[in-house]
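Write out a record, fold above all:
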Amino acid sequence: MAPKGASAKSAKGSKSKKTTNTPKRNDTPQRSGRQEVTDVSAKIPLELQQLLLNIFRSAFPSRFGSDLKPLLQEVKQHLYNRDFLTAFGKDEYLEAYVVRWSPSRALGYLQIFNDLEDHFRPIHKSSPWTVVCLGGGAGAEIVGLAGFLKQLVQEDTPSGEEESPESSDAAVSAPKFEISAIDIANWTPIVTSLQTAITTAPPLSKYASAAAKESNVELLPPHLFKTASLQQDVLTMSAEDLSAQLQNADLVTIMFTLNELYSTSLAKTQAFLMRLTGSLQQGSLLLVVDSPGSYSTVTLNGAEKQYPMHWLLDHTLLSVPKDAKSTADGPEWEKVLSDESRWFRLPEGLKYPIDLENMRYQIHLYRRLP
C-alpha cells in the first residue's frame, strides 16, 4: 500500500511556480463529461488556517533550508518509480514530503470536517471521539482534525469568555479526540513531532513582548488531543489485528489512499473492505476522499475495462451480502453523502515558505448499519 498522496501520476505531474509566501490559486476546475464540479468556498477563519500552517513550521523548523528542493526531487523520483519503501525510508524524506504536501491537504481536510460536522454529531463529551486514519501517517488528517477540534472548543466557549480548557468545567465539557494513523511506512517520528507542535506553545524570540508571550499558547491542550501511529499494511492485516484497531472507532478515514490500494490489488482491497466492515460498530462512519473520478480508475483483466473507484467502493459496501438468508438482509452500509468532484480553494493572505495548492477531490461518506 502506498502512503496517501504517493501516486506515481501525482509525483510526475506535480509542478509549481516559485512564489514567496503566497498560495497557488491558478488551478482551473475542469469538467469531465457531464460531471458536476462543486466549488467549496472556505468557511474557516483565516487565523485558524494560518495556525495550522504554523504547526508544520514549528514541527520541522530545520526542513525549510536549501537542501529541501533536492530532497523533494529524490522523493518525487522514487514515487514516480513506485518505489514507496525507498521514498519513505528515511526521516529526511518523510519530513520533506510532509512540509511540501501535507499543509495544503490539512487545510482542505479541515474544510471537509467542518462541512460534515452535522453528520458527526453527537461528538460525545463524556468520552473521546475516536478517529482512525488509514494511510494517514503524513499528518494532514491529524492537523486537519486538530483544527476541527479547535473550532469545537471555541464553539463551546461562551461568548465573551476567555478560552480556558484547563478549567474544571471546561475540562469536563470540552470534546476530546483520540486519533490513530495506520500506514505502511514508519511515520511515528512525524506524528510525534506534529503532536508536540499542536499541544505546546510555539517558540518565541527572546525579544518578544510581554503581550506576545502572554498570548502565546498551544493550539490544543494535551488532554484534549492524543495521537498514535502504527506501521501496518492494511491489505495484509488479519481480521483480528484490524478489528483491534477499528472496533471502537467513531470515524475511519481513507484519504487519497483507496485508489492506490485498488491499483495495488483489486482482490486484496475488496477483502480489506470486507474485514473493515466486520470490524466497525453500528453507527461508525467511513470517509473516503480521493482524486476525482476521471483520475481514479482501475483496470480489470488487462486493459479491457476500467471502473471508477467510487463504483467499486459502492459495489463492495452497498451490495446485499452473498450469505444473506432473506431479502430482509440488506446492505451493511448506507451512503450518507457523495460528490464526484469538489474543489477546495485556498483563501488570500496565508503565509508559508512553500507553494500551497488548491485541492480537487471526490468525497464519499458511509454509515455502518446494524
